[in-house]
Structure formats: structure tokens, C-alpha cells
Amino acid sequence: MKNYIQLNEETVVDYIKKKMDFFQEDAEFTCDEIGDGNLNLVFRVKDVKNGKSLIVKQALPYVRAAGEDWPLDINRGEIETHILRIEHELTEGLVPEVYFYDQEMYCMAMEDLNDYIIMRYGLLEFNQYPNFSEQISDFLVKTLLLTSDVVLDPKEKKERVKEFINPELCLITEDLVYTEPFHIGARNNMEEALEEFHRQEIVEDQELVLEAAKLKFDFMNNAQALLHGDLHTGSIFVNERYTKVIDPEFAFYGPMAYDIGALVANLIMNYISTKAVLEEGPLKEKHMAFLRQSIKEVIDLFKEKSYAMWDGVVKDQMAKSKGFKEHYIQDVLVNTAGVAGCEMVRRTVGFAHVKDLDSIPNDEKRIQAKKDNLSLAKVLVKNRHEIVTGEAYLELIEKYL
Amino acid sequence: MKNYIQLNEETVVDYIKKKMDFFQEDAEFTCDEIGDGNLNLVFRVKDVKNGKSLIVKQALPYVRAAGEDWPLDINRGEIETHILRIEHELTEGLVPEVYFYDQEMYCMAMEDLNDYIIMRYGLLEFNQYPNFSEQISDFLVKTLLLTSDVVLDPKEKKERVKEFINPELCLITEDLVYTEPFHIGARNNMEEALEEFHRQEIVEDQELVLEAAKLKFDFMNNAQALLHGDLHTGSIFVNERYTKVIDPEFAFYGPMAYDIGALVANLIMNYISTKAVLEEGPLKEKHMAFLRQSIKEVIDLFKEKSYAMWDGVVKDQMAKSKGFKEHYIQDVLVNTAGVAGCEMVRRTVGFAHVKDLDSIPNDEKRIQAKKDNLSLAKVLVKNRHEIVTGEAYLELIEKYL
Fold this sequence. Notes:
The structure is a homodimer. By secondary structure, chain A is of the alpha+beta class. In chain A, 52% of the residues lie in helices and 11% in strands. Chain A is built from 14 helices and 10 strands. In chain A, the strands form 3 sheets. Chain A has a 5-stranded antiparallel sheet, with helices on both faces. In chain A, helix 10 (282-313) packs antiparallel against helix 11 (324-349). The relative contact order of chain A is 0.12. The model of chain A has no long low-confidence stretch (mean pLDDT 94). Chains A and B meet through helix 5, helix 6, helix 8 and helix 11 of A and helix 5, helix 6, helix 8 and helix 11 of B.
């Protein structure tokens, strides 16, 4: 930590000029701290004269939202850089380009996605992204299947498992997604009007808690593929044409279902939000139809593309066995539904919420939306073995929402 | 490798005298290379005058049986030392004590178990070990359950996963246990009289190969507990009273079932051997009864002791959920049967055999024993979800042998 200095909007311009030849001589700089996460400072450095910009992201040695008493491994930026480079290569640009990583300042510079919007905010403005499910399913299949034992040399895969072991951030997920929401207290956070429902429908539903425990141990033990590890709609930049996945700091070797399930859950929660917030009319219809289609396509395209890619990429001789592909993908999809349910529970009653649900202005509608969300989540966890097609999700949405 | 010199029976005495004060001044030394493994030189250094002895084990930079063209990570001795120390503490002495590890010579000195016999040879002499199943089930429960996420701090557990990642030796298992025996060729090794049976009953049984593929991926991905990784009867020293597990060089974080299954398989193969070799009579009856009891008890005592220990040691809050203990142990036992089946297949048609089967002198009886072994193995793999009690094993043995 000898040469670590926390950057600010004043110092970051000089810092970047020293580090790389990105900007022109006559640049006129603006600089804004644009971070909304909990773990980093994020600056946009822009030359307004020539229209060039980049992003500087510096790790803080503690989790920001929790204050300085929650220490975290500050080297995660280096891991993130490596992950982004791997994902950039695997997906042909579905993540931003990294220009450099500075080991002394725990700081990276990367492509500015200034004509993109964070998907969660885009969805909350009821925008649709027609290429999203096509592109994100590409991201999922390529980053997951191509980093698994199905494809990678087993020695190389194990070296990667080792490199990307991520105890600090995995523990956050283990606690905040898979443990605390299923109990009373800890860092849980919910409206008083939800407390009784939470106790009865979540904490006291022993079958639900048991199934969540199984999913937790799958998360902890199943080193299947190199996950993004935090693939909610706040980790995705979108515009009308493109998709870019950001913030892979939680990445580690874990179950594929964790990425797919987190994503689907966040689409479902935007659906619930939209349903509660918008008046009946063409915008509501259009946005909800887009979400239904996206949910369906994320599941179905993941399966379709995995199947289509399998024969061409599979290296493991046993993975070529008749029926194995179907078993493998089925198993991922089963746990995807389970993960989606856990994510929906924790975003309602746990420490970290989503704006989609919290921003529903009408109290009664918001509480009802959250209860509906929890009810659907329970079904996803408990009946996950039957929820393995896009159509199955749509039927549940129809029935419970 | 700068200071690495391969030891021999002449040089090892001087080496050990320089390294530690174990022997007395007036010692009269004998020294024998006693290794029968493939990866190491093993010497017994003995002071015949005062009756003290120890074992020196030096890693070779290649797999011995395969010649110098199969390079292996020579640092595995250091890992082995760490594992033995962990296991020694967890099991209160069910593994030998390590005196030192020498990083330059890739060499360790450890307790000499000179009043013990390698269990495989003891069983081939039709000896019984009345305390074995009690002690080995202790070893299994303590080394497996106490190194899992159920008990260990999740951060510490992940640091251990990282430390004990073992790509070289895992690959041997992945190839020799889980891949080659289910195909024609490669390093497979069997009597001509078995080739047709192997092709029809193993290679062409698509359901069997698919289930083996699932077990292979469980082996590769399921970082459940710190395994021994090679727990056959050649890795166990026994005498009338005690049991000591040796040679944990294959150790890594993997599925608990892998250790339990390998052990049970080797007991079953001795049973098959005994049945074929001995004339009817009290010795045969006695030895087969001992083996039946041991097979039953390994399974049942693992379950019983895991259940008994669970509440007192479990730390993970979700692992305390009602029904989780039963689910967790059941899952281990299901895959135990599957692993046992794979081990029995590979010891019959794969690269590394067991003396139990190969030493049956009568050709016809030996081939029949091997076919019976393969037939039982198939059932263990394919029906593993129903084979979760000691009684279930005994019923299968009754039916197929």
C-alpha cells in the first residue's frame, strides 16, 4: 500500500496523463465521480474538446456502503482486469476493453461506455433493448461453457480455479444471498409491513430453507465455470444496439446457474415493478412484452446456443458421451431457477435491495409487489426441477403476478 | 532442483543423521528401499542395535512406473506433509507422524510403521482386522466432514482449496479412473479373454458411460472436503489393533464419496478374490464374513458417525436447516456407490490393477472373478441412488458374486 493514494476528481486527470498516451495535447478535461457501487471510486475523465473519454476505477480498501469497518481484499482490481481480458476475448467485445491496470494504485483504466446506460436505469425508464437477450445469451454461453471442464484443458482449468478463488466476495454472497434472508435479523432490511410475511413465508418454510441450503452448498463447492458472480442489471451497460457486461469483481469458479439465475431474477423484478408502476396502456404492454420475451429468451437461447456450440468445442472425452450434454445443461437450468428465487428473496428482505422494487411509490402496491415477488421466488426455489424452459417461467409469471 | 540428489540405500543414512537427532550415537544401521508405489523412493532406515527406525520418502520427478517421460510436480511431498499434519491432528493419530520435510531434497522423514502391514497384503494373507472399520470410519468422518464447508470457516476453507489444488495427480485419476476404462485403447490393460466383455458390457453400455461421466464431473468440480484421494487398501497400514492411513499425495478438495467409494471397492475386490481363491472351509467363511462386515460398517458407520458428530461441529447456519444433514450424507453415499463402481472397473480393465484380482492363479476363475467384478460395478454406478446402506451392498454382493 506504499504508493497508494486515493484519487479524486482533481487528481485523476494528472494521474491518467502520466500513465498513458490516450488524450491529445490540447485536451480540455472534465472529470466526474460516477460510481454507484459499494467497492470502488469510479471516474469518467473526458476531453470535451476532442470528444474522447475513459473510465478510471480505483479499489477502496473497504466496502464503501458499510464504512471502513468491512475490510476487503484490495487486489480484486487485478483479478477483475484479468477476468475482463478473458471475457473480452471469449465474447468478442461483450465487456469493455481494459487499457491498463496499476498494481500500486489498485486502479484500472478502461473503455468509457458513455453512449450506454446501466440496464437497470434503462429498464426503469421503460426502454427496451431488442438485441439484449441475443447478446447476453452469447455472453453467458461463451464465458461459462468455454471456461468449464467440458472445454478447457483440466490442468489449465484448475490453475484458473486457483487464481480466481475469491473468499472475501464469495462470503458476501454466501451471507447476503444464501443465509441471512432465510433468517430473522442480521443485516436484513425490509418494510415493517413485510416482516410477518417474511417470517411466515420464508423463515418458517422449512422446505424452502432446506432447498436454499442445498443451493448455497452448490455455490460454495461447485467449481464449474468462471462466473461473473454479480450479473444483475446494474452490472450491464446497454443501448439500442449493444450490450456490455461490467464489474466482474465477484468472479470465481462457481456454478453456471448463479450468473443466469441472477440475471433472470432481475428481469423478473423489473417486470413486477413495471406492472405495479405503469398505468394500463401501450407502454406498459410493450415493456412487459419485452421483459417476458427477454426472460424466455435468456433461458431458451442459453440452452439452444450451448447445444449448438457443444460438439464443436467439447474436449473432455467423457463429456462427449451420449446424453451428457442434455444432462449437463438441464442441471444448470434447474439450479438457475433456484438461484433466481434466492436472488429475488434477498433483494426484497435482505441487505441490498433493487431500485425496481423499492421505487414503487404507492406503499400498498409496493408491499404487494414485494409479496408477489417472494411468493414467486419460493416456487422458483422449491419447484426448480420443473422450471427449465422459458415457457415455464412465463407460465409462473402469468400465474403468480 | 539445485540441491536435489536422488537418495539410495547407501546415502540415506548419512542424510538422515545430518537432518535430525533421531538415532543414538552407537546405532548400527540397516537400510532398505521398500517402495512399491509409482511416485517415490521409500527407505526404511533402522538402528538394529537399539531398535529404532524411521521412513524416508523422496519424490521422484517423474512417475516411476511410466518411466521418465511422465513428468509430475515434484513439490507434492510438501503438500503431503501438510496434509498428514492436518489429518494427524483431526484423527488423533490415524496417520503417521511426520518428523520433517526437506524442501531442497523433496524428501520427508516419518514414523516407521514396522509393526504394521499394508492392508492389501494382509487381506491377501486372509488376515482380519477387527478394529478396522471402526477406525477407518473415524478417519473418514473426521478428515472429510471437518474439512468441509459444513464446519470450516468459509474463507479458511477456500484458502485450503487453493493450497491443495492438485492438477497433475487429479488428471491421473480423471484419465485412469473416469475416462480410459470406459473406452477402448489408451493405457487400458486386460486379459484378451476380457476384451469382448469389456467392449460389450462397459464401452457399449451408454447408460453406464453417461453415469460415469456425471461422476467424473463431480470429481472435477465438487470441492467438498479435503480428500485423501487414493484411499485403496494399498494406502492403509494395519495390524490387529490399529489403522494408519498413508500416502495422501493425491489429496485435494473433492467429493467425499471419492475416498469412501475407493475404499469400499477395494474391500469388495478382496472379497471376490477370496471367494475365487480359497477352498470352502472355516478360513474362507471367516474372511468373507469379516469383509462383508467391514463393507457394511464402513458405509453405516460413516453415516452414523457423521450424524452423531453433525450437531456438535456444524458452523454453517444453513447447514443447520432441518433435513440438510440427511440430504448431505445421502448425497455422499449415493456417489460413494458410483465411485466404488468406477474403481472396480478401472482396477479390472484399466492401467493400474489390484493384486487381489490379478493374483487369482486359475485362469478361468480369474476371468470369471473379473467379469463378476465388472457386472457388480455396473450396478453400483447405474443404481447408485438406491445403494446407500451397508445392507444394500451386502444384498448386491449376495446377488452378483
